[in-house]
Amino acid sequence: MSAGPEVGTVLPALSVHLTRESLVRYAGASGDFNPIHYSDHAATSLGLPGVVAHGMLTMAVAARAVTAWAGPDARLVSYAVRFTKPVPVPDDGVGAELQVSGSVTAADAETTTVTLEATCGGEKVLGAARVVLGVDPA
């Protein structure tokens, strides 16, 4: 991250492809084996459109847009989102594309705030997504 990014700075867009394999790998790493993340039957019986991505996976993917832009020495101070829609991941050999964009919405001597937007299939999946980075003194 360059020193002192200006309000309005637009982060490079991030697009991440999610498949059922992605969900299996995430379940193994996280220990979250809720059947809505692998069973269409379980998901639809709860009123979901089918298997959906883990919320924390969606959140982590969105954060990558900021960490990739800010660089390896960035200090993530806080991160909050509101889940607005689930990310359906069909078992069709294609999967789903999660698209993330963001911009700097506040910056001072101590922190930089980035507001993110995450969509899948044209639908907003995260709302009020905000990352605060600590600014290291020069």
Can you walk me through this structure?
By secondary structure, this protein is α+β, with helices and mostly antiparallel strands. The chain has a domain at 14-19 and 52-134: Roll (Thiol Ester Dehydrase, Chain A). The protein has helices spanning 20-30, 40-45, 55-70, and strands spanning 14-18, 75-83, 96-107, 111-120, 123-134. A 5-stranded antiparallel β-sheet has the order 1-3-4-5-2. The radius of gyration is 16 Å and the shape is elongated. The model has no long low-confidence stretch (mean pLDDT 95).
Determine the CATH superfamily of the domain at 14-19 and 52-134: Hotdog Thioesterase
**Major beta sheet, specifics?**
5 strands, antiparallel
Mean pLDDT equals 95
Strand sequence of the main sheet, in spatial order?
1-3-4-5-2
CATH architecture heading of the domain at 14-19 and 52-134: Roll
Shape: elongated
Contiguous runs where pLDDT drops below 50 for at least 5 residues: none
Q: Could you give the distance between the termini?
A: 13 Å
Tell me the strand percentage band.
25-35%
Radius of gyration: 16 Å
Based on DSSP secondary structure assignment, what is the total number of beta strands?
Answer: 5
CATH class of the domain at 14-19 and 52-134: Alpha Beta
Family: Belongs to the enoyl-CoA hydratase/isomerase family.
Domain MaoC-like: 13-118
Organism: Microlunatus sagamiharensis
Protein name: MaoC like domain-containing protein
